[in-house]
Amino acid sequence: MEKVIVGTNIRKSFGHEKVLRNVSVEIETGEFISIMGPSGSGKTTLMFALSGMDEIDAGSVQFDGKELVSLSDNALADLRREQMGFVFQQPTLLKNLNLLDNIVLPVQKGNEKKSKMLMEKGQKLMDQMGIAGLEQRDITQVSGGQLQRAGICRALMGNPKIIFGDEPTGALNSKSAQEIIYILSEINKQGTTVCIVTHDVKVAAQTQRVLFMSDGQIVSQLHFSRERVQSIDERMVEVTEKMREIDI
Ligand SMILES: Nc1ncnc2c1ncn2[C@@H]1O[C@H](COP(=O)(O)OP(=O)(O)OP(=O)(O)O)[C@@H](O)[C@H]1O
Ligand SMILES: [Mg+2]
């Protein structure tokens, strides 16, 4: 399988605290992967390292065969903008812009001529995410789940190769969380690689592979078989057992 990300022996410290201790991880193109682990174990730091959002102290991260540390700041910013989409726990949308403008904003800069096309694309994505009709709403006039869908639309505007999500369902109730996970699965089925951090066993159970982090290391992983038909409940039991086994 083709790898979209190959991280090798990644190390990262903040002051004296070793936050990533020799982490190696490979993500295959088309995978839907989740990262679990206790608070402070280094999940966000790892995601930032893999996406080039933050520098690493040692080791290597390759994206599509390109070594991230060898890229200039501009090249790295371009690569992130063109190939990666980011979804956070709380979408960082701007208060004085309506939902559609917020979605289109990141790809619009320097692209004013294509503005109409981008607006149409934004609208189409909103339709696909089930938030059509909310284009003109202010971000304070929609629900948390709707806001997160808008965040996903924004992440998809540039047709990314991979979507990174740092606890994308963390601020949502279980119904909205389920809807977001369903949307991410659909995006994944259409070919986009998805990598999310989650504390939610049910969310992790709906990905294909779960990495477990503890104290700056990947200590275990679970790979759900594509051949074996398993219910979400059965997978949740497996995730929970694994967490117990490795004491996280
Ligand atoms: N910018 C920073 N400066 C200093 N320390 C940091 C910084 N970012 C993270 N840390 C520390 O690194 C460790 C790992 O943080 P990280 O955010 O990766 O954890 P996490 O697994 O994502 O936790 P959570 O589940 O709470 O989000 C923590 O001890 C944190 O305090
Ligand atoms: Mg985190």
From TrEMBL:
Record key words, sorted: ATP-binding, Nucleotide-binding
Molecular functions (GO terms): ATP binding
Signal peptide, first to last residue: none
Keyword Nucleotide-binding included in the entry's annotation: yes
Any matching Pfam family: ABC_tran
ABC transporter domain mapped to chain residues: 5-240
Gene3D superfamilies in the record: P-loop containing nucleotide triphosphate hydrolases
InterPro entries registered for this protein in UniProt: AAA+_ATPase, ABC_transporter-like_ATP-bd, ABC_transporter-like_CS, P-loop_NTPase
Family stated for the protein in its record: Belongs to the ABC transporter superfamily.
Full protein name: ATP-binding cassette domain-containing protein
Native species: Candidatus Enterococcus murrayae
